[in-house]
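One thing: can you check what follows?
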Amino acid sequence: MFQAGDVIVCGTHGVCRVEKVGPLSSAVADRDRLYYTLKPLYERGSVVFTPVDNEKMVIRPVISREEALRLIDGIRDAEALGIEDERKREENYKTALKSCRAEELVKMIKTINARKRSRAARGKKATDADSRYVKLAEDYLYGELAISLDLERDQVKAFIRERIGEE
C-alpha cells in the first residue's frame, strides 16, 4: 500500500501524488473501505479517489532513475507494437495506454512515429487518431520520466534525443 506523499502512476491519470489514504466521508463511499486521494501532477485542479484494493486500475510506483535511463538507452532497439489488423490499431493503442507500462508507451510512440513518416513519404498527413494517441503516450511517458530523472516534463524529449544521439 502506498502512503501519503508517495508519487505513483495511476491508470489514465498518469503521475499522481498520494495526498491521503483512508475512508472517504462521502455519502456514496463505503465507510469501511480505504481509498487513495490522488492529485495528478499534470492535470490541473484534478483529484482522483480510488479504492486501495482497486483491481481494475493500474496503480504502481514511478520507475527509478536507473530504470528510466535503461528504458531511454533501449529506445533505438525497442520494437514497435505488433499491429496485425489495421482496423484494430486504436484498440492496440488503448491497450498500451491502459497497461501504464513505460515500455509499452515507447513501443506505441515508435509505432505512431513510423506510421507518420510512412504517410508523409506518400504525401499524406498523420491521422487524427495517431496524433491524439501519440500525444497521450508522450504525456504519460514524459511525465513519469520527468519525475524519475528530476526534470521538468518539457525537458524530457530533448534529454532523450541527446542521450540517444538523435537530432
Q: What stands out?
A: The longest helix spans residues 128-149. The chain has a mean pLDDT of 91. Helices lie at 65-73, 89-99, 102-121, 128-149, 156-164. Strands lie at 7-10, 14-22, 35-40, 48-51, 59-61.
